[in-house]
Amino acid sequence: MSSGVEADIVLDAAVVLTLGMNRVLGRGGDAAGRGAQALAALAAGRAEAREAALAEVRTYERALREVVERNARIAALAETRGKLGADVALPPPLQPAEESAQELTAWCAATDPLLDEAERRLSEHLAAQVTAQVFTAPAEGLRADTGRTPPPRRGDDAQRTLERIMARLLPDAGEDERRAVAEAARLLAAVGTAEEAEGVLHEVRLRIREANRRTEDARERARRRAAERDAAEQAEAERRYVLDSITAAFEDMGYEVQRGFETLTAGDGTVVLTKGAWPDHSVRMRVDGAARVEAAMVRERPAESEDDRRVDVEREREWCAAFEAARARLAGGGIRSEVSWRLDPGVRELPVSAAPRQTGGRSGQRERRRERPT
Question: Which of 119, 153, 359 lies closest to 256 in space, CA to CA?
């Protein structure tokens, strides 16, 4: 990159935590709310106050995540309840609003036993369903197929034992897993001795163990997918926070800002800085997620004289000063940056931009969007 600068970005913990909380609370992507005190203490250099505020933010963020986990479990149990047609009560999910971290944690503690009880009752409902099928449908099938009297049932003891074992099957076991368990359980209706019954029950136990293992694996895959979605949403929130902060910083210093992801391509992180006093110059900036920023000054047309090159050096110096001022401002908002590469003014000729220059900045873009016919 010619005539430019590269810097690594590190977001302050208060920003990262607050962005995560705002996503859960549905408040958008700006670092506000409960993290404001930590950011204010950071800007004022009050280390002790900052650590206290940050500790409070961490506690609240952990409590929010626990609520999200319980809400996900409630949704999963509600789906299982619907599939089984069971009449099992579930606690309503909590939509966090103004609750304190202690109140959120208390809700989780009170909700956990209710969810455990609901899962137990759903398992019992599934066990009763399968047991009833075992001791009714097979006998009817034998009568229809052979015309013979079905073998005697093993009595209430066998049915109670099977139902107790079946209650160990996780209620959200998949259809294939439930079918495998049921196929083994149906053999119990045709056994003639206690030894045969015990052999069937042992096979049922083994199949339930395997079904539960597969179900736990499916739950873990679902948790990983949810974690990946959460990480992607957090990364996007951080990226937009950095872009919004950079845009605001340079607009306040008199620059017009065009952002690529608002116009042509989604999420490319391209920012173009221009000024009214810069008819021949602009700065192309690219923000790589929330981890890196690269910027270079370019010419809109080739330099034709020594005077043009003298102006280039002046513009580069002006830009370097603006970049340092922006870094200081961004640091106050929790965006620290460390320059990893820099090219001093006048070392190389400015490259010529290959893209046509736009004017109007973000406000101009908004005006043009409003003027479009609908």
Answer: 359
What is the greatest pairwise CA distance in the chain? 110
Give the start-end residues of each E strand in the chain.
4-11, 256-259, 270-274, 281-288, 292-299, 335-342
CB 34 within 8 A of CB 21: yes
Residue 313 sits in which domain range? Answer: 4-12+237-371
pTM of structure: 0.76
Phi and psi angles of residue 356, each rounded to the nearest 5 degrees, phi first? -65, 145
Per residue in 9-35, pLDDT (tens digit) is: 999 888 888 888 888 877 544 444 555
In a domain, 328, yes or no: yes
Beta-sheet strand order (sheet of 281-288):
256-259, 270-274, 281-288, 292-299, 4-11, 335-342
Q: In 3-state terms, what secondary structure has residue 33? A: helix
How would residue 85 be classed by pLDDT, with cut points 50, 70 and 90?
very high
Residue 306 lies in a domain: yes
In total, how many domains does the chain have? Answer: 1
pLDDT tens by residue, 354-369:
765 555 544 444 443 3
CATH number at residue 244: 3.30.310
User: The tokens of 241 are what?
Assistant: 């926070």
